[in-house]
Write a structure and sequence with these properties.
Pfam families: BPD_transp_1. This protein has about 280 residues and is mainly alpha-helical. It contains 14 helices and no strands. Helix 4 packs parallel to helix 7, helix 8 crosses helix 9 and helix 10 crosses helix 14. The longest helix has about 45 residues.
C-alpha cells in the first residue's frame, strides 16, 4: 500500500524535475543566443562587402570575400597595433603579477586588510580623473608616446585586480602546509615560493588572464598616452571610421582579428581558468 501511494508522488517529482531541466535548458540557450548573436554577426560581417553589411536582406547566406582581411592585414596599421597591444599587455600583466601575487599572499596570511583596502582605492578611483595629472607628469618625464607610460597606466588597474582576486585564493590554502615548511627550515618567503605559489597557480592564471584582457581592450589610456608608433588596437580601429562614412567590412575584420588572441588565451588556459574560478567552492 505504501508503494502504491508513494508511486504517484514519485512520478510527479520526476515530472517536475524534467520540466525544470527543460526550462533551465531553454533559459541557458536564450542567454547564449543573446551573447553569441553579436559575435556571429561580427564574424559574418567581416566576410561581407560594405553594401552587404548595410543591406538588411543579406543574412548569414551570402558569397564571402576575403578583401576585408587583405585590406586590414596589408593596407592598415592593425598588424603593428596588435603587436603593440601584445607587448603592452604581456609586460603589464607580468609585472602586475610579480607585484600583486606576493602582496596578496602577505595580505591574506598576515591579515593586512587595511593595506589591501588602500590598494583597492586605486581600483575604485575612476581612471579618467587621473588622466590630466598623469599626462602632465609623464610629459615632464618625457614618457608620453612610449611603451613605458602605457605599461605603467595599465598596471594601475591590473595590480589591484590581481591582488584582490588572489587574496581569497591564499586564504583558502591550508596554513598548516606553510607552517610545516617553515618547521623544516624555510623562511616565510621560501614557504610562499615553494608551497603557496604552486598551489595558487590556477588563481594566478585566472587573475593574469583577466588583467591581460583588460589591457588588450583598453582604449582610454592608449588614446591619451600613445603616439602613432605605439597605438594599440582599440585606438587604431577608429581609422575605419571617418566623416565620409564607416568601413564596416574592414572594421568587423579588424574586430575579428582583435578577438583572436583573447580567445586563444582563454582556450589554452581553460583548464587553469575553470580551476581558478571554482577554487574553494567545495571547501569549508
Amino acid at each position: 500500500m505504501t508503494t502504491a501511494t508513494a508511486s504517484p508522488a514519485a512520478v510527479a517529482h520526476r515530472r517536475r524535475r524534467r520540466n525544470l531541466a527543460w526550462l533551465r535548458g531553454v533559459a541557458i540557450a536564450a542567454v547564449c543566443l543573446v551573447f553569441a548573436l553579436p559575435v556571429v554577426w561580427m564574424f559574418a560581417a567581416a566576410f561581407k562587402t560594405n553594401v552587404q553589411v548595410t543591406d538588411p536582406s543579406v543574412g548569414l547566406f551570402f558569397s564571402p570575400t576575403l578583401d576585408n582581411f587583405r585590406a586590414v592585414l596589408g593596407d592598415s596599421e592593425i598588424p603593428r597595433a596588435m603587436m603593440n597591444s601584445l607587448i603592452v599587455g604581456a609586460i603589464s600583466t607580468a609585472l602586475s603579477a610579480v607585484i600583486a601575487v606576493p602582496a596578496a599572499w602577505a595580505v591574506g596570511r598576515f591579515r593586512m586588510y587595511r593595506t589591501g583596502s588602500l590598494i583597492l582605492v586605486a581600483r575604485i578611483v575612476p581612471a579618467i580623473s587621473l588622466l590630466v595629472p598623469w599626462y602632465y607628469l609623464f610629459a615632464q618625464a618625457g614618457l608620453v608616446g612610449s611603451y613605458t607610460v602605457l605599461v605603467l597606466s595599465h598596471m594601475f588597474v591590473s595590480v589591484p585586480l590581481i591582488l584582490w582576486i588572489m587574496i581569497s585564493f591564499f586564504e583558502r590554502l591550508p596554513v598548516e602546509l606553510e607552517e610545516a615548511a617553515r618547521t623544516d627550515g624555510l623562511s616565510a618567503f621560501g614557504a610562499f615560493w615553494r608551497i603557496a605559489l604552486p598551489l595558487a597557480a590556477p588563481g594566478t592564471a585566472t587573475a593574469s588572464l583577466l588583467a591581460f584582457v583588460f589591457s588588450w581592450n583598453n582604449f582610454m589610456f592608449a588614446l591619451v598616452f600613445a603616439d602613432e608608433s605605439t597605438q594599440t588596437v582599440p585606438v587604431t580601429m577608429f581609422n575605419f571610421i571617418s566623416y565620409a562614412g564607416t568601413d564596416w567590412g574592414g572594421l568587423m575584420a579588424a574586430a575579428t582579428l582583435m578577438s583572436v588572441p583573447v580567445v586563444l588565451a582563454a582556450v589554452l588556459g581553460q583548464r587553469y581558468l575553470v580551476a581558478g574560478l571554482t577554487a574553494g567552492a567545495t571547501k569549508s
